[in-house]
Specification:
This protein is mainly beta. Helix content is 12%, strand content 31%. It has five helices and 21 strands. The strands form five sheets. Strands 1, 2, 3, 4, 5, 6, 7, 8, 9 and 10 form a ten-stranded mixed sheet that branches. Strand 3 and strand 4 form a beta hairpin. The radius of gyration is 23 Å and the shape is globular.
């Protein structure tokens, strides 16, 4: 497509963009040492959306994945085998050196490029791995834009075949990308002496009106609290602000060792839940129900808490492990357009035959998951 001839070419003013790998002519150079990039995928979450056919919520914004508006899109592109309800695109396998040619067919905005972000490899099948690519527009990061590609190839061959992509392509970006509101203006607006971090980004739907903004994404300390804010780079309007909650205390997380959990502390007590309550642990004290429990039976079950500086024996290591693994996995599913709003988990240790399952009626908005045992170990540590 002539209007997209620069799609995978680095923008001269943006030195952080990708570099090609010479031996394979692939588009993005992966990190050479990847052992710390492979994050666990909780099998139970896979059970949840496959067993109960949960459909990911789709955005109603017209500037997201606009290629889906065409009923003949998949028919016109021979590489596409099918498009699922999750907006995953399964392919008649293509080589990575054909990825640029394939992505051209999505008619993205002139000035759109992609940068390799990270790789996740299957621990059960070393021939399967996923690479995620961040979207840029005129060298500026497009928050939430990009795609994850699924690969298969013996021994992790960098020229392996691509079998699927999960896109979140943002288009129709028509913005003045030269900021008017500058560093000193931000300092004055926030009433602080300095910024911990500042990045120019293109934000999507921050104001819930499906509009793009060129914004400064800044981090700063105020009233002893670390905050992140998005400030319109042209008008100076503060679009959104959140507190950055740092992980609080350590806990023994089974085979993962001692981990600093992303839990919640209030009034001197720490609870085994995430600060936004999107992940909550319920301690059933090892009881294993004979039949699937009803969601209401979870209401009066306590969330483990401690007033110590570390988690020790307040609950089992299995529950710490469940919380840690789920905290690591949840963001990965979001990159595949599967966004779990709330996950409540229990650990069942009373029977070896009970592995992991999701309660009937679980949804992406409110999921209830039971973690069991497998060969004497919590099935929370199972990874793909």
């Amino acid at each position: 497509v002539q209007t997209c001839s620069n799609l995978f070419k680095p923008v001269q003013t943006c030195s952080i963009l990708f570099k090609p790998v010479q031996t394979c002519s692939i588009l993005f150079k992966p990190v050479q040492t990847c052992s710390n990039l492979f994050k666990p995928v909780l099998v139970t979450l896979l059970l949840l959306y496959s067993t109960f056919s949960i459909i990911a919520q789709s955005s109603s914004c017209p500037n997201l994945n606009t290629f889906l508006n065409s009923s003949s899109f998949s028919e016109d592109i021979p590489e596409i085998h099918r498009i699922t309800e999750y907006k995953w695109i399964y392919l008649n396998p293509i080589k990575e050196d054909k990825l640029e040619e394939f992505v051209h067919k999505f008619n993205l905005d002139l000035g759109t490029t992609f940068q390799f972000s990270h790789e996740t490899r299957s621990r059960l099948d070393t021939s399967e791995f996923y690479r995620t690519y961040q979207q840029y527009y005129k060298g500026i990061e497009v928050e939430g834009g990009g795609f994850t590609a699924g690969y298969i190839g013996t021994g992790g061959n960098p020229c392996a075949s691509i079998t699927m992509i999960a896109p979140t392509f943002l288009s129709n970006i028509q913005l003045n990308t030269n900021p008017i509101f500058l560093h000193s203006d931000i300092i004055n607006l926030l009433g602080v002496q300095d910024l911990k971090r500042k990045d120019l980004v293109i934000s999507h739907n921050l104001s819930e009106n499906c509009q793009f903004n060129v914004a400064w994404r800044v981090e700063y300390l105020k009233d002893k609290v670390l905050r992140r804010a998005w400030i319109d780079a042209n008008s100076g309007q503060k679009l959104y602000e959140v507190e950055i909650i740092s992980p609080t205390i350590n806990a023994p997380a089974g085979i993962y060792g001692t981990k600093n959990l992303k839990d919640f502390t209030e009034n001197g007590k720490t609870f085994l839940k995430s600060p936004d309550e999107s992940i909550i642990i319920k301690d059933f004290k090892g009881d294993c129900p004979d039949s699937p429990v009803d969601n209401k039976q979870w209401d009066n079950v306590s969330i483990p808490e401690t007033d110590k500086s570390v988690w020790t024996t307040e609950t089992t290591e299995a529950l710490y492990q469940i919380f840690y693994v789920t905290s690591e996995v949840k963001p990965l599913f979001k990159t595949l357009n599967i966004d779990f709003k709330k996950i409540t988990l229990m650990s069942c240790t009373g029977a070896e035959t009970v592995t992991s399952s999701a309660l009937e009626g679980s949804t992406l908005d409110n999921a209830f998951i039971q973690i069991g045992q497998l060969n004497g170990n919590s099935s929370a540590f199972l990874i793909l």
